[in-house]
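Re: your question from the hallway

Yes, I did run it. Sequences:
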Amino acid sequence: MQVCTIDALLAGGFDGHVECRELLRHGDFGLGTFDRLDGEMVVLDGIVYQIKADGSVTRPDLGLKTPFAAVCRFETTKTLEPDGGIDLKTFEGFLEACIPDRNVFCAIRLDGTFAEMTTRSVPAQDPPYPLLVDVAKKQSVFRFENIRGTIVGFRCPSFVQGINVPGYHLHFISDDRTRGGHILNFRLATGTCRIGLCHRFLLQLPESNRAFQDLDLSKDRSAELQTIER
Amino acid sequence: MQVCTIDALLAGGFDGHVECRELLRHGDFGLGTFDRLDGEMVVLDGIVYQIKADGSVTRPDLGLKTPFAAVCRFETTKTLEPDGGIDLKTFEGFLEACIPDRNVFCAIRLDGTFAEMTTRSVPAQDPPYPLLVDVAKKQSVFRFENIRGTIVGFRCPSFVQGINVPGYHLHFISDDRTRGGHILNFRLATGTCRIGLCHRFLLQLPESNRAFQDLDLSKDRSAELQTIER
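Structure:
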């Protein structure tokens, strides 16, 4: 289940409209952001974590709303053992080879130890909201070494362009739940990766939200997406 | 609820994988096609109609599968009285003015009498399947005059490109359920239009269907879509 579209977020649609509580009715695993773009979201084992721009990690009130999130009930289709030493790009190549089903959704969970993990988070914004690409210029970047934790994310098929991130979108949370964020890169020490294929996709759009209806979602924002994802 | 993507259909993914019976669990109103591209589908008041390339209209066995269809539970948000004499293009302009909510899904039902109605249907194909754009070259076109019936269709937001038809996609069935098809144009005599806004969109992708996984859905097929829709 997905709340709103990535292009609405890119266009500055930062007002939350679905409560975290509602997200958890649809899934126990996923990622997103929060009302006013207040940090990165990780949903893991049915718990919502908020990684703020100051690096702090909290479990938000479940009444907090999200403008963009994607969750699923994680069910393992396949278990993989990626080689130690690989970085994000190599990991993606590894998954391409292991999961030929390119036209469905793929939930990705990697529990492991990371020699290096680089993440980012974004600060809460005030209306009138800027474009996400402009917020990302002021993102906080965190670098961790020898950290145990979990990668939580998705590989989406190419046809979700405008709706979600085609390809890989991965967030991270540490085992002790004190660090995390949107993954920019990592170097794996050792870990186990579980993949869950999803053949159903439920999109929930805002109801009675004038700001959403007024967003120009006909524009191709793939270049902006490329900029903020890496 | 939508079965598969329009780009999979454009790419020749004509094998049905969801039964009509299952479609009716998700909605009583909609459109699509059938296994092997065997005609145009109209779902109206909970009944599935099949308009074949020979012009015949039947109620298919509900075990028949579809490779592409979109249905919803029709609930009227707004009732409109379009002017008599308008054609398809003017009707679309009329709806643009009446329904400013461009970023959600819109079910469109127009019950009326049509001075002219032009539709098409497509013949069943055998594997290896051609592209839809090539099948459309051999489509049957039907022209009716002074016909009573119902327009059944959707206006989809721009961000569904690759997944469904951005903009308008309308099918027709006559009151006596003997004629119909995918609408190419019409001239309205008199009618009442009901609009239902939809904020949830459920996409069902094929499970364990190798042919679907092998389709190249990364290609921009919007020009092909433009060709076959009008």
